[in-house]
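Interim report, section 4.2 (structural modelling).
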Amino acid sequence: MDSPHFQTNLLPRPDAGWLFRMAWRDSRRSRQRLLLFMSAIVLGIAALVAINSFGDNLAQSIDDQARELLGADLVLSTNDPKKEKLFYPLLKKVTPTTSQTINGLNVVDSPYEYTNEISFASMVSFPKNQGVRLAQVKNLTLGVSNFGSQNSYPYYGEWQIVPQSAEKLWRDQLQKRPKPYYALVDDALMVQFGAQVGDSVQVGGVSYKIIGRVLKTPGQSTVTTTVAPTVFLPFVAEDLLQRGSRVSYKYYFRFTDGTDVEKIIKQVGPKLEKEGINYDTVAGRKKQTGRAFGDLTKFLSLVAFVALLLGCVGVASAVQLYVKEKIASVAILRTLGASGRQAFLIYLIQTAIMGFLGAAIGALVGSAIQLILPRIFSNFLPVTVETSLSFPAILGGLGTGLLISVLFSLLPLLAIRNVSPLRAIRNSYEDDLSGRDPLRWLVYLLVIAFMVGFAYLQTQNLMLAIGFTGGLLLAFGILTALGLGLIWLVRRFFPASWSYVWRQSLANLYRPNNQTLILVTSIGLGAFLIATLYLTQGLLLGQVELSASGKQPNMVLFDIQNEQLGGVKKLVAEQKLPVLQQVPVVTMRLSDINGKTDHVNRNDTTARPPKWAFTREYRVTYRDTLISSEKLVSGKAPYQADGAVYISVEKPFFDRMHLKLGDTLNFNVQGAPIQTIVGGTRDVEWNRVQTNFLVVFPSGVLEQAPQFHVLMTRVPNNQVSAQLQRGLVSQFPNVSAIDLGLILKTVDEILGQISFVIQFMALFSILTGLLVLASSVVISKFQRLRESVLLRTLGASREQILSITVLEYGLLGLLAALSGIVLSIAGTWGLAQFVFEVPYKPAVLPLVVVASLVTVMTILIGVFNSREVLSRPPLDVLRAEV
Amino acid sequence: MSILRVENLTKTYTSGGRELTVLHGVNFTLEPGDTFAIVGPSGSGKTTLLGLCAGLDRASSGSVYLNDIRLDTLNEDQRAAIRNQYVGFIFQNFQLLPTLTALENVMVPLELRGEKGAAKTAQALLDRVGLGQRGHHYPTQLSGGEQQRVSLARAFANRPKLLFADEPTGNLDADTSATVVDLLFELNREAGTTLVLVTHDMELASRTQRIIRIKGGTVVTDTKERKSERVEE
Ligand SMILES: Nc1ncnc2c1ncn2[C@@H]1O[C@H](COP(=O)(O)OP(=O)(O)O)[C@@H](O)[C@H]1O
Ligand SMILES: [Mg+2]
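Predicted structure of the assembly:
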């Protein structure tokens, strides 16, 4: 007999409102807890919203301040000052000339003015403190000045100078030429040598009066000034330019208001390029800067996304415990006739609302955090960032938070659909909730699709998005494996003979419903980031310090002219210092390869040498042997045979140029053409204080060419180094010296600035881990309360229970920190081995600090959240409902 | 027309690779409006039988007809709908939803049917079981007897045709038991519901019109054996 009376339209149909009402009612007693689960995503969303808001504001600021970035309407640059002659004829054709009649005379004016900048590296000295170092020198002079005497670079943007009055003095002197000349000096340089406004600074044997310290130049970030602190001068000795190192010439243009510079450039751009003149317009600079910082904020938002994902894994595991608790209620609902779908929806609604709240709080916190981001990133920013609420970022954060918390909650929530009503009549009933629900795979797929989709939206690069997701899954996988491995080790080698307190806390790590894995993953990832940061910093410094060891040179003197060589050597000898190496350097340009500047000798047109190959300046030395930092790869060391010149080319350069042994390279050595043949390739160890060359000639070819010399020595300490530099500056002002101390200091400062940013991001990850910890402690509170009450009724003292708690969380924190550190050591070992090729000895101290800090924080959070278990009298606890 | 018909019902559990047959070909038919007791020692399969009759579980073989609807051809959600339409439950351990107030607990079956005025009906039922003033209390704020009375109110809320009570007094003391049982029979009489009472308490069982005694998974005596056999033919 079948079921004639039953029709589906008899199915109970409560309206959707009922589901929401039930979700609301059911949450009443666990709302705080639910919110705590969801708090795990707060920081991730906050980081995301903060970074994206910051990115939006930064992009806006770059847009608004693009002219200030450039400091001009147009910048032309070249390394040949003779090209300046071309500006007028080129620009005359495309710029509207204003002609006016003054006193009956027709006066034609070009509608622009410009400032010349000559920049080069030179030794600068501060006589008061006898400080000497290599610095960037920028010589600013008026090129064409049309619109009144006050105008010179920077035409736009704020030049932050202390005292402010110095700016007017500076601009005036460009016309008045006082004696002595005035100089503006970067603050970093002033601080390093304790110089004051009013002191003098010497460059190339000329003394200048410092009238102001420069805090910020338009378009420059603090990081740029760290690498190359600048001295601004209105005049430099001519011979310094001729004998000095690489000099570049820039021309800062200002046009009359309303001039369409882009249109001008469209017309003359190709001609300028043909003449080897580069140009930079406001729009171009805007695009370039915007792209660079867009990339930065995108990268950071991916880091924020990692913190968010960590939080989500926490959410999923919290919801799983929550669902376990709710199974009895679900079974009752089912006996009363609710469908599996309805029960599922009730809890889905709860988590979705909490997810949304978590995201909303996150968006709020993020919007607050973004206010401080400009300060954190200030060293990198070329513009001042105006902070304002970014609604796209906030909406994005809300959407992301809602979606991702629901996605991750779905995994445990799906099980609700399969809860059997039998549980209501049979306590012991165990249905298969872990079962292979095919929908689970769909959810996994959705999660991965979401990750890839998010990364793609951020980077607009599918391969990168897939790589990011894959890498992240790998890191999670490795951390999970490490966590599992550690748990396994604890079980396998369980110290059965240890005291009860120890055994109990160790056992807690793998008891049912333990949160060990999720905490190891989240806290471990944070520890990994921070540890990697320190280890990499150590690696970089270690690499530089490597050259400080043994008899390696640690100071380089360069730009020594032929006739100065003897004098410089004498000076070095007077300081009782060795000349470890002396290398002649000839500058030249590459005219063609096998007679062509295009796709050389291949049919394959993709194998063409890069454009810069024919515009750059080559610094070449000559000798017949390879030196200790070089290794022959193919062919021979440089040699001459049958009147032909066989040169040696550095291997990676050889590859980039798509060269073959036997190719003909024609060089222009300051006017004189020289034909050479590629006779061999070599590998060069670049990570030493050493002169290294892309191209080495054999001896006997370049001896008569104009050349300068590089000399390497080893100074025992900073005092001797300073003394030698002072001697050099006074006798040979054009000779530059750089020592390892300066390099180390620079690297250290830059790393310090970067590490702050990375630490800030890693902090989100760690804090998320601690939040996950806090919520997991709260979730398992009831279980713990019962246990501790049981223990106390069995006679355990409060101290014993406290010790168990402290030990348990201590072990957990330690496990997490160790997992992160192990992963980090493995990663940086790989870096050391394969990238930097330096011996690996990780600094132990920072690792110990990271491990202890993480452990202590974990203990504090754990104990704080368990305080109820510890402080309340047993009877109270038994009566309390949770 | 019968309200519940059980044909050759067999239930076998497999656990740890070993089979355990809990019910061996059970047959009986219940007429509407009567009161029945299923009695037997602990472990004899009473709860298993009740679970199958209410469509909470699937039989290994045989079938259950509830209001002439064959349950084993329906899926879990359809059976849930049947339960909501025709079946009420009383459990040994009350099974109130801990996060809902007494009133809300009684409202659930009504709301599941999408009925209007659920709160009013539920309040009337709470009044009927003498807990009109306690509607806003949570289960943990009520005594065992009070909780079971709320559960009585909930069981009658959807005017079930069939009410299953599994050891309804198992967790209550003697005095409270008496009150709850009296209330159960009163409500049952008023609503004209068919009551299936599962118990191992013979005194309680004797208050019903018909007693089916099972042991080791088979019906050993049925006080109206002949009647049920006749319907089956
Ligand atoms: N899921 C199960 N798996 C295996 N055996 C079960 C399961 N559920 C119940 N049983 C067994 O079935 C028998 C009948 O149980 P039950 O119906 O609860 O008896 P009663 O309600 O009469 O005490 C018992 O021996 C019990 O152990
Ligand atoms: Mg039973």
